Structures are given as C-alpha cells and as structure tokens.
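Researcher: Good morning. I'm working through a list of sequences from a screen, and I'd like to move beyond sequence-only analysis. For each chain I'm collecting a predicted structure so we can compare shapes side by side. This is the next one on the list. No need for commentary yet; just the structure.
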Amino acid sequence: MLEQLARFAVELAGAARSETLSRWQEGCLADDKSGGGLYDPVTEADRCAEQAMRRLIEARFPDHGIQGEEYPERPARGRYAWSLDPIDGTRSFICGLPTWVTLIALLDEGVPVLGLIDAPRLGELYLGCEGRATLSRDAGEARLATSGCFAIGDARLSTTDPCLFAGAEADGFERVRRAARTTRYGHDGYAYARVAAGSLDLVIESGLKPYDYNALIPVVRAAGGAIGDWTGGEDFGAGRIVAAASRPLYEEAVKLLDA
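Model: Good morning. Structure tokens for this chain:
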C-alpha cells in the first residue's frame, strides 16, 4: 500500500510543479497574509498548487484527510491524511531564487510515514519511505545517505534565517554556529533534503508548522539521519526542529542548544 501511495505522492508533486514552475519563471506577485505581523507572503502559485493536489487526493482517495497550508483541514475518514506545503520558501520564490520546494507527507494515524521534498527549478525530487531515501533527477534515481558526520566541529550547518531566533533560542543557535565548521542560510526545506543527500550535516530551526516539517521527518530518517526537537525528544508540535547526519551529531547539537 505504501508503495502505491509513494507513487501517488510523486504524482501530486507533478501536479504542483505544473502550477508553480511557470509562475516562478514569469514572476509572481505576493500578498501578505500576516495581518500586520511578521511578513508572511503567499502567491497565486501557492494557492493553485495546493488546489491541484487537493483535487487529486479528493478524486483518488476520498477517505484521506488533507492538512494544507493555504486552505482549511479536511478530516480523514480513516487512518491516512496528507500534509501539503505547496511552496516552502515563498520568500525565495518571489525573489527568483531556485531553492523553494514543495513538501508532501503521508500521515498514518498522525505519524509521518512517507515524505517527499520536490525542488522543481532544480529538477530534484527527494522521497523517503520505509527506510529507503532516493533522489530522482532526469538522469535517473539514486539512493540517498547522510554524510554520517558525528562531530559538531566538522559539521556544515544551515538555518533559514538566524534573525528568526530570539532570546534563549538565539543564544543556543549561536553556540552551535560558533562550534560548527561552516554555516549557510536561506534554504528552507531544501536544507533538509541536502542533509539526506550528504552535502549538509545539520539544520536547526524554530517556529515551524506541521506542514513545514511533516515531509522532512521520513526523508531524513530514511537516509540514516536523526531528526527531533531541541531537547532530544520528538515534540515536533513546538516547531523547534533539529535534523542531523547522525545521532551523535544530533545529541551534541541539542546539548549546545540547551547549555
């Protein structure tokens, strides 16, 4: 069953690509949905891509729930639900940068069991399911594995924007940043894909919503990485996420965050 649903997830990603890629190439205006708070852009591409995926799910699996970023939740009539983030990295999208992604996860009784990270402009699709992580490009499919990095001093660290941390969180991240070998910013969900692919070792973020992290969990774990919260557990609901190339690296990062 999961193999069938993995193929369907790839089909969902294709439907989203058909709505997002051309709009990215042409340029797409953004509305601010923050209501006067921290700028939170949304575009026609976000809305149309989620609508396209929702239509496919409703037609093919009418009992499956849908939890998306842009539209109200549709409760499941059974064990499965889909988590959809049509464009993760909308700021990159509206700036004409290529690393925005579509995030798709299948939840089984609320637990992410299948994750997909699609980078349309880069032509890369990352899939994690049942202990197997793959990267598909035009040239074919390759098995993914993290770098296995286990020491913070050797780690390549990423976060979307260090300015999103404040107070104790900012202090904790700064301790990790100073200890890490190098740090890169601005990649949103794509950074987690690169942890799975072995070119980044550690991602630390805060303030994420379920549609931001559900797809990341199966991809990172299936590639051999560790992903959890800032205290060493799995309370993802707080939105504080650490993804690492290995369990020892994850644990060392957590110690620094909580020092």
